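Allow me, if you will, to draw on your knowledge of protein folds for a short while. Thank you for your consideration; the sequence and its C-alpha cells are set out here:
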Amino acid sequence: MKIELERIQTADHKYIPDLFNLYLEAFPREERRELNVLVAMLDLNEMYFAAVTHGSVPVGLVIYWIFDGFLYVEHLAVRHDQRGKGIGSSILKMLRKKGDPVMLEVEKPHDEASSKRVEFYNRSGFNQLPVEYFQPRYREGESLLPMMLFSDCPEWEPEELGRSIELFQYQVYYSRLKKEKG
C-alpha cells in the first residue's frame, strides 16, 4: 500500500477531525496532549504533525520532532480498520530515510497488545536502548510513566544518548508544560 505523509500546520485542515478522533482513540489520556495544546503547537518548526494518507484518505497519524542528530517519534497510530497492511512499517521506513537515528518510546509489555507493539518495533529494525526510562507527564499532577526507549541505532554513545534524551524531554514535555502553566 502506497502511503504519503502530509504535514498539517493549521487547525482547519480537512483531516483534523479524523486525526483527532484517532489520536484520542489510540492513546490513553496520560500518553497524549490535550487537543487545544496540540493545536497551539501545529506551527512549531521542529514538530511535524502529519496525516498518513492512502490516496486522499487519512489512514493514520504520526507526530515527530527533528533535532540536531536524531529524530524523535512522539506518536504513531494507524486506524484500526487499516492495521496489518504494512502502514506502520512504511511510516517508520519513511522516517528512517530522513537520515538521522530515530528514537521512540514504547509502552512496557503487560498484555497481548503491548507485547505485539514491542514485536512490531523489533521487526521494523528498532531495539530497546539500555536505559531506565520514564515518560514525562503531559499535565501538572500526573505521574511519570515507566516506558522503554527504542531506536534504530543501537550504538548510541552513553553521553550522547543522555544528551539526546534530555533535549527531547525538555523540548517535547517540560518546556510545553511550563508554557501551559503560564
In short: The chain has a mean pLDDT of 92.
